[in-house]
Amino acid sequence: MNQQEIEQALIDSLADNKLDQSEKNQLAEITQELQNQPDKISFIRNKAFAVLLEQGDFNEAQFRAIKWLENVVKTLDKNSQQPSIVADACFSPGNDCLNRIVSLCNQARHSIDVCVFTISCNEITAALLKAHQRGINVRIISDNDKRNDKGSDVYQLDEAGIPVVVDRTEHHMHNKFALFDKKVLLNGSFNWTRSASKFNQENIATTDNPKLVQAFSYEFERLWTKLG
């Protein structure tokens, strides 16, 4: 729903001065869809107060009381937004980047979307296979040229039943990012290979910043549709 549709839904709901079950369900669905966009949830909250004040018929004391409540909610909303619970960086050579990827795979509860140039690290492959086996929705986007490299695990993952699409153009799908439960983004120069851990100067950063997660989610879905 866009902002105009949300406002109209609030106006329609206020017409009988109650929030019935179907309206509660609709509001719950919207909240779930916007769980990574707290600014839009705040818009709905603030718009509800605006609609109430515009549509309602209040005396001066009632109006002041509603404005007081609105300011209380706005203040709580502004000051209770949590900082990123996941925000760090890892560097190689060394096992920090590798361990971070494996840990996020093991912690995933719903989905893992991987968009990487290549996968040839046995530990990462094992973590993705374990996630798939316990029912996590794993999807992989990779590059066709690297898929055929010696040591590549992309075929193994594909044969295990994990959906895989590859870039078959003359150019390369050179991204190296992953999304976990559509809430945590991992991104950086780190190739998902053993040599990246052992020898290369590489990096990855992880964050649950909603705007970044959303941007990379859109890009993953765009590539998945385009290449698939």
Structure description:
Strands 1-7-6-5-2-3-4 form a seven-stranded mixed beta sheet, with helices on both faces. The relative contact order is 0.13. The protein has helices at 3-14, 21-33, 38-55, 60-80, 96-107, 122-133, 144-147, 154-159, 194-198, 210-227, and strands at 87-92, 111-116, 137-143, 164-167, 176-180, 184-188, 202-207. The model has no long low-confidence stretch (mean pLDDT 88). It is 53% helix and 17% strand. With 228 residues, the chain is α/β, with parallel strands linked by helices. The radius of gyration is 23 Å and the shape is elongated.
Rounded Rg: 23 Å
Q: Largest beta sheet: what is the strand line-up?
A: 1-7-6-5-2-3-4
From the spread of the alpha carbons, the general shape counts as: elongated
Structural classification? alpha/beta
Low-confidence stretches: none
Major beta-sheet overview: 7 strands, mixed
Spatial separation of the terminal alpha carbons:
28 Å
Work out the helix count.
10
User: Quick one: how many beta strands?
Assistant: 7
Strand content: 15-25%
Which secondary structure elements does this structure contain, and how are they paired or packed?
Blueprint: H1 3-14, H2 21-33, H3 38-55, H4 60-80, E1 87-92, H5 96-107, E2 111-116, H6 122-133, E3 137-143, H7 144-147, H8 154-159, E4 164-167, E5 176-180, E6 184-188, H9 194-198, E7 202-207, H10 210-227
Parallel strand pairs: 2-3, 3-4
Antiparallel strand pairs: 1-7, 2-5, 5-6, 6-7
In short:
This protein has 228 residues and is of the alpha/beta class. The protein has ten helices and seven strands. The chain has helices at residues 3-14, 21-33, 38-55, 60-80, 96-107, 122-133, 144-147, 154-159, 194-198, 210-227; strands spanning 87-92, 111-116, 137-143, 164-167, 176-180, 184-188, 202-207.
